[in-house]
Amino acid sequence: MRPDPFDPDRPRPRTDHDTERPYTYAGVDPWRDRFEPDPPQPRSYRWIGRWLVRGFAAGIVLLVIAIAWLAITAPLSRSLKPPTPPSITLTADNGTPIARRGAIIGTPVDAATLPPHVREAFMAIEDRRFYSHWGIDPRGIARAAWANLGSGGVRQGGSTITQQLAKNAFLDSDRTATRKLREAMIAFWLEAWLTKDEIFSRYLSNVYFGDNVYGISAAAKHYFGRTPQTLSVGQAAMLAGLVKAPSRLAPTVNLKGARARQAVVVAAMEDAGFLTKREADAVQPQRVLASRPQQLPSGTYFADWVLPQARDRAGEVKTEATVRTTLDPRLQNAAERAIRGAGLRQAQSALVAMHPDGRVVAMVGGRDYGKSPFNRATQARRQPGSTFKLFVYLAALRAGMTPDTVMDDSPVEIAGWKPRNDDNRYLGPITLRRAFARSSNVVAARLTQEVGVRNVIQAARDLGISTPIANEATIGLGTSEVSLIELTAAYAAIANGRYPVQPRGVDEVADRSWYASLAGRSRALPENVRAQMLQLLSSSIRGTGREAVLSIDAWGKTGTSQDSRDAWFIGFAGDLVVGVWVGNDNNSPNPGLHGGGVPARIWRDFMQNALGVAPPVVAEPEPVFDGNAVEGIGNDLGDIGADALDAAAGQLEGLGLEIRQGDDGSISVGPRRDRDRDRDRDPGPPPRDDRRPPDEPQDEF
User: Fold this and answer.
1) Quick check: helix, strand or coil at residue 373?
2) Which residues have C-beta within 8 Å of that of residue 240, sequence separation ≥ 6?
3) Residue 523 three-state SS
4) What is the predicted pLDDT for the residue at 25?
5) I need a labelling partner for 635 at 20 to 30 A (CA). Which of 31, 97, 213, 680 fits?
6) Is the peptide bond before 500 cis (omega within 30 degrees of 0)?
7) What whole-number distance in Å separates Cα of residue 303 and Cα of residue 464?
């Protein structure tokens, strides 16, 4: 009987220690079916299959993630936008362009409507196989790599037009591997969602051509005065050549280099089969516009100051915007002429002109913007001198005083400080009107002490002064620094009758928020206070400011800081409020400079041109003037001296006239009277201008 091979009591067969397989009986392996039912497939094939499936799944996941990432970080709409912030064109109040800030961006073009040679010029030099690749050109990359390897550096690039659009619209210009990888991914993304003509159109609409010009429409107009549809072969070749190095090859600054690059593009067009040899030889070196009548100045003092307001006024700018400003070209020219005609040499000067409501119509921030764009009208902070007395006298009028209130113009000591009048002349009891006209420092110090420093500061704050003001009595003499535009706006509040006046270069937005409306609410100046302030300013312009006298009613105040470092004149007439400053940028002294001199004459010259008024008629000696009207004449006589006064009196005596001075210091000229009757009267020289040196200063500043 044959033994059962599966009997559990049967001894197990011996095994081979090398193979671990049992011995067979009669060629039959009884354990085969039990331990090796089927021979397995090779492990290598199973491993490869599993990883292929896993890789495919991972690829799908990564593709989904990449698509989502590109949709968020690289939306197709961004390829329509220029790679730089849009520009803002500023115009004067009559619509005349005065300045442009930002790039010149052309209108989008449709590549399909352009002449073939325009498209072929860019393809020949940038991407010959544009219409056949999928965003990446392996042949171009290999060619560039081989050329760069042979030259030992980066001489050629393998980027396609699609890659350049991806870089310009979505990425920066660094050369890292990460950026190149992102560039390739975005290029595939663009190729998948846009047609070739759409990609080409967006590329030509956004590419940079130098001179701050973006897009072929703007470049064609900027360099040749043409549209892209009318470009010749040579002109298209020159524009295509600029893309490599637009800043360096711009024909307006490097015509020789642009022509050499044009020749390279024409040769590439011939090599690519876009031009025959005869057509290529017929292309001539191109010329660009010698002058661009529509080119605007890129920087002026007013434009620099008004630009933030213009951007706020325009809101979010997505394309080129135009903002109308308050600048009056005629008044701006008059302001520049007044500064040039002042005869200044080393000193700087600034002028601001505005309407009483704060609309700035002219601004000069220095003698030459090209040499110094620093705006001394808005950015400089200087000591205002006696122009700050406006706030001292305003506080006094608010406290109940009047122009006829009498103050003591005699030396005084306040907490160890001894203010003095510049001419060292003290008149004793005088009215506020006369003290303001002769710019008495002593009276200003006494008023500051009497009404309180806090009230003087409050008056300055109410009229719009925002710069720090020291809490001390010396502020009455203008020791705290201010800007010209703020100080001019403070005087505008007196002219306007409402305060504060906010200087602005664009019209106010109609739909202001409730907070802005509440914060910017102005208040009316009491009519009696304004009328009394006008009396003081009128007496001053006929006193220390007599050089600014016009043939029409005018109001103003002179100011000179210590050691004649700064000289000011601020006043108003007609519908204009104008401030003038003269001084050195390094704050050094200007011997002989004073507010009643050069600044007053600049103010007068500008006002006469701006308002169209004739110079004032010099008064004949016969009329008799009141004290206010001849305050300036009295100062002149004081500067001349007693000997000159006697000589003048002798000449007038020969004409049957004589000079008389009243008890209040007023000077009058009239028919000669019996001298025996007035023998005991000693008129003496009237008080001298506190800001006028003994000798008339020359225009050497």
Assistant:
1) coil
2) 121, 122, 124, 125, 126, 265
3) strand
4) 47
5) 680
6) yes
7) 22
The angle at the Cα of 564, spanning 562 to 570, to the nearest 5 degrees, equals: 95
- Residue 590 has a CB neighbour count (10 Å cut-off) of 22
The CA distance from 608 to 533, in Å, is 24
Helix (H, G, I), strand (E, B) or coil at 273: coil
Is there a contact between 609 and 652 (Cβ–Cβ < 8 Å)? no
Residue 158 pLDDT: 56
Which two structure tokens, joined as six digits, stand for 602? 């600049």
Distance (Å, whole) CA 33 – CA 54: 34
Q: Is the pLDDT of residue 392 over 70?
A: yes
> How does pLDDT run across 351-373, given as a tens digit for each residue?
999 999 999 999 999 999 989 99
Distance CA 585, CA 380 (A): 9
Q: Which structure tokens are listed for 342?
A: 């002042």
pLDDT 10s digits, 123-142: 999 888 888 887 776 766 66
Give the separation between CA 650 and CA 631, rounded to whole angstroms. 21
Contact status, residue 237 vs residue 121, Cβ threshold 8 Å = yes
Other beta carbons within 10 angstroms of residue 181's beta carbon come to 10
Confidence of residue 64 (pLDDT cuts 50, 70, 90): low
Please provide the size of the chain in residues: 701
Largest CA distance in the chain: 184
More confident residue, 560 or 683: 560
Rounded to an integer, what distance in angstroms lies between the CA atom of residue 148 and that of residue 140? 12
Q: What is the pLDDT of residues 484-501, one digit of tens each?
A: 999 999 999 999 999 999
Q: Which active-site residues does the annotation give?
A: 126, 386
CB 466 within 8 A of CB 482: no
For residue 567, the surrounding DSSP H or E stretch is strand 566-573
| C-alpha atoms less than 13 angstroms from C-alpha of 327 in its C-beta half-sphere | 28
- Given this model, what pLDDT does residue 160 score? 86
